[in-house]
Amino acid sequence: MNTLSLDPTAGNDAMPAGRVLGAYLAEARSECLRYLRAPGFMLPITLFPGMFYLVFGVLMARGEGTDAARYLLASYATFGVMSPGLFGFGVSLALERDGGLLTLKRALPMPPGAYLLGKMLMAMGAAAFVVLLLLGLSQIAHVSLSLAQAAALLATGVLGVLPFCALGMFIGTLVKGQGGPGVLNLVYLPMAFLSGLWFPLPMLPKVLQQLAPVWPSYHLDRLALAAVGMGHDALAGHVLVLLGFTVAFVLLAARRLRRYG
Amino acid sequence: MDMSAVPVARLRGAVKRYGALTAVNGLDLALHRGELLALLGPNGAGKSSAIGLLLGLHRPDAGDVELFGLDPQRIEARRWIGVMLQSATLPPTLRVRELLRLTASYYAHPRVLQESAELAAVEDLLDRPYGKLSGGQQRRVQFALALCGRPQLLFLDEPTVGLDIEARQALWAAIRRLVGEGCSVLLTTHYLEEAEALADRVCVMTHGRAIHEGTVDELRARVGVKRIRCISTLLPETVAAWPEVAEVRVEGGRLQLTTAEAEVVVLRLLQNDAWLRELEVQRAGLAEAFTELTRDAEASSSDQREAA
Is B306 contained in some domain? Predict the structure, then answer.
């Protein structure tokens, strides 16, 4: 590149591709490490879905056979996958915009996107952990799953965290500092309820049933149900909705980040 | 092409507005290789905004911004810089060693970890989580992060705020060492003695403009005021009536005069008071020069407003 020859130490200035890749890896490693060491993040995201599933899916569903436990495995997996996306992105972005860390990262020669990519990998890892935890608990209730079904649920969770990363990122650009968790809970909990993750949709009022396809968590739940062998819908539609939702919120968030930092 | 002639960082007629506020108002600034330039000015003068432009955090509304001859938003330009911002909350659960490793990974030819740690005197903190450090220790870690990429240009925004005297002296020594190795530094500071101790050149800003640029000595000389202290039998009112004397104060039994013509006033003092003792003549400190400069700028800008 021509412009590089203007550099004061022309000749040994190019960043080798290996080092650029190393920077991405270092960023992802740091993101994972810092959250693994933050009990305030890891505890709620594993404890709530794990506890709820244990109480409602394993202990209380005993009389209803393994179908209830199987159904709730999908629902609580969806519920559990939403939070690392929403909170991992939303809370940290709101705090880091406020605390100046994002400004510092933008001033430093961090490779583009490494910051968001690192958070994304962290959220996917946390989602995988939650799904594995629920899969383990489901064995107490004797839910019989083939290896393929378990793997499908895991993959659904790991990829299904992405639309919620996008939504969390967008919310993180709207609120600043300590306001993040409150706003995110206001989105997270009602959305989980309205998508039928706590009570199956047929138990909810008709209006809410009809409204459910508005929420991304509804579509992820359908995919999770299919993964454990309980879905009867065509999957492509749900995948497309989630994909569109992800792209839309990433674009919205990126626009706000560019404008307001 | 002569590389040493190309400024490492340059603003030309840069303007940055935030709504109705013009934070940077036609600023020209050039920083050369191996030079330490201190940016001084009261709060809200536009120092941080000027740095934000040079770091590529904001785009100027008018004018040019260059970093090593490139647009600062290009990562190739920023690979030559190190940054210490006024405030940055780093991840509290990461250890100092991990923070240094992460930051060094952004650069093509970083220092080895031990060297960065030594330069910033944080060797004993490497295995501690950042959140457990004191404010002064965190500041030193931020300095280590700024220099770990072996930068050609360091941005230091109020680097010694919150440091005790010893830590401040150590940081100054480290900055001098880096400048000695050919690194350029753009420093903003509230402490004038810091600029006095370190800077080759100072640039004084108010209202988004540079109102003075030159060496520390030139800044003092430009104000040209001197201070005379003595123990005298003369009455303060008598001395105040002399046309060359700008101001008279009595402090601890001593007469303290401010004047632009020290020689004339000293001669008069000696002629009129045979018992004059402990005569001292001093050039005004940077603090006085600075206050006077910014006051002049305030006055002239309010004149302009009245005229308009």
Answer: no
Residue A4 lies in a domain: no
pLDDT digits (tens, 9 = 90+) for B164-208: 888 888 899 999 999 999 999 999 987 777 888 888 888 988 888
Q: Tell me which residue range forms the domain holding B267.
A: 225-283
Out of B56, B98, B108, whose CB is closest to A30? B98
Number of domains in chain A: 1
The Cα B155–Cα B180 span in angstroms is 16
- Out of B173, B199, B220, a domain closes at B220
Alpha helices in chain A (DSSP H): 17-36, 39-52, 66-99, 101-107, 114-138, 147-174, 180-194, 206-211, 216-227, 235-260
pLDDT band at A2 (very low <50, low <70, confident <90, very high): very low
Mean pLDDT score across all residues of chain A: 86
Q: Is the pLDDT of residue A3 over 50?
A: no
Give a yes or no: residue B291 inside a domain: no
Domain assignment present for residue A6? The answer is no
Amino acid code (one letter) for A82: M
Q: Does B57 contact A13 at a Cβ distance shorter than 8 Å?
A: no
Residues B210 and B235 in one domain: no
Q: Give the mean pLDDT of chain B.
A: 86
Across the interface, whether the CB atoms of A100 and B88 are under 8 A apart is answered: yes
Q: Are B16 and B24 in contact (CB under 8 A)?
A: yes
Torsion, CA A118, CA A119, CA A122, CA A127, rounded to 10: -140
For residue A227, tell me if it sits in a domain: yes
Beta strand B254-259 with B226-231 is antiparallel
> B91 and B239: one domain?
no
Residues of A in contact with B55 (CB under 8 A): 106-107
pLDDT of residue B106: 94
CA atoms within 13 A on the CB side of A101: 16
